[in-house]
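**Archive record**
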Amino acid sequence: MSTMQELIRKVLNAHGRLTVDPGGVDSGADLYDLGLTSHASVNVMLALEDEFDVEFPDESLKKSTFASIDNIERVVSSLTG
């Protein structure tokens, strides 16, 4: 597991309000199926912005961006260069 994924899982644990521990979730699993709500995804986004010192562009502010750890990692990676 990459360090970025570990940090994403830490953020999800603190802000995602998932019904399971994100530490053991498959990186491709649908986070909305695991309890992530629209409200919690906003909190996750804000925490990710702080964690990685990035700002999500408008085109990334969609449900699919936060649907899985893989998707989050892909977007954050593109923002961090």
